[in-house]
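Consider the following assembly input.
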Amino acid sequence: MAVSLNRRTGAVSFFYWIWDGIDRTIFTGIKFSFPSRFVSPFGFLGMLTFITFVILGVSGALLMFYYFPILDRAWDSVEKINDVVPYGFHIRNIHYHGSNAMVLLAILHMYYQYFSGRYKIRNEVLWVTGVILGTVTILEAFTGYDIIFSERAELAISIAASLTNSIPIAGPTIREAMFGSGFTDFVLRFYAQHVFILPLVMLGLMAVHFPRFLVFDVPMVMAISGAILITGGVFPIDMGFKFEPTVPPGITVPEWYLTGLYAFLRTQYDKFVTGVLWPGLFIGSLLLLPFIDRYKKFSWKDRPIVTAFGITGIAQIMVTTYWGFYIPPDTTIPLVQRLVIDPIFFYLVMILLVPLGFGFSYMMIKMAQEAERKAKLRSDKGPKKVATINLSQKWLNWVIVGLIAFQVYLNIAAYNAALTGLNNLSLFFTGLILLVFAGLFHVYRYALSEAKRPPPPPPVHATEPHAKEVKAEAPKELPPKTETS
Amino acid sequence: MKLMGAAGTALAFAPFVPWGQFMPNPDSAKLEKVPVILPDGGQANINTFPVNHAEVITYPKTGDQVLDGEAFRKWQFIRLPEELGGSKADASSFRAYSMVCLHLWCLWKYWPQEGRKRGECPCHGSMYNPMTGTAFAGPASLQAPPSNTLAKLDMEADSSGDLWILPAKWGPNNNGVVGYGRFVE
């Protein structure tokens, strides 16, 4: 009796059966690819945003077990999650820092697409849904930090409500319809939007936005998850103060993705113009970008005007974001005066940033072209040298053993930290464990591909011509091919 | 033909248009004339309520402790000082303004002391004129109308001097919107 030569036996064949079945469903449109070698990290940003969304979904669902969307209990329930519930601190910090990571990744993803001109590869729908998705992501994050109902949350809700009210004609009606008529309604409705309505909208948009080729890379996913946990460990988020309507609130600023808008509001200029029209204009021009950008080329170096606008936009975002945070430290002047930003100074800086941004872009493009020219000259002269790390099989094994030993140590440390109540330390170690796992996975993957590589031919036969060919075609790990590709 | 198709479609979905009323909370809509109930549980009366004095009243009352406790249902019930006409024995000597400051929604209150006699917000120092409910100092006074004048309640007194709150209409042109403001005629 011969042994079956088919390697798909037992559980493996079952998994392939499921995989093939899934491949005939709606997911046929999406091709998951698992790159076996390093590709540009920017290409991962979209996928990482999605992974963060999944992390947020899971951690948020867990938070729902303990959270009360009730006016006088919301803050207390979050405090209970943070201080009493075992590992509630971890879940809450993952959820909080995950939200920041998602907004950041989404913004970076957008700017990568912006400067690389990749939105030209496919149609405009992908870009437009992406911009809407980004806006909804920020709304989602905003409703999230409002339902803690701390002092800052209350101020944020009141600003959101007053901005809605400031919309001409329909404003008060919209506010009444969307926000309801009091704090009880605000908390409950923001909660409904945060946990259901907005995620549903995001999932719907994602179905359209999803690329046909999804680059999924385990070490990358693990690294970003680890980074979220480590940030949570190093900068654990505090509770803020519970909102008491008779207690004067301290100085609070919104989350970093809204301080730019906050800076505009602090000029005390008309609420509708500063708080609704300017951000609307910004989002609107981003939406229209693929219709405005008529350059035939992709690279940012070949699209000077688009690049210059992008750089100017980033500069303005950075300046306003910092300005929104900055409050003069002089406590002798009244708080309200400290909060006000001189509109003339502010708008002058905004306008001044335009020529600066354009000049900077021009300089960057010139420098990049010069560097390109030099690189070309160099490559004409000599062979291109790339530094590589070559480890033997033995040393690869030792690296893996070392990483596993480190994992064991970190596991003990994390558990011990959690036992002794050092929640942030335990979160930090857990993040480190994920990072180490990312490294482990990569080394393991590399070792496997090295093991599959045919052994180098004996040196005596090196002169034979075909020996070189064998070495040249290093086998790559490919995803299982299917007939639908 | 196309017109009939359009008419049919419009008729099929027309009943759903008023369903938009699901969105605003009806708690604030179906209102009737209710007595002014002071914190001590009694009804405010023209003959007993002291001049130049204020109390917190809840409106509209639901009976639910949590809902009644919230800032958006809290009103400053003020009897004006004498020089502003507070000694007159009718409803005109009384005012009821939303306690939610128009700036950032802290709770302001009336200070009867000599030299103050105005509504003051503890958070950023907005001050309100007790006669009209309009902010005259602080950040709330810098906001464009209607966001510089507090929402108010209309009241009337019966023959025994007991005070009643008339049904309020929430709109910037009527009683105003709590936390947003009111246009002054």
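Chain A touches chain B through 31 residues (CB under 8 Å). Ask yourself how this observation constrains the way the partners meet.
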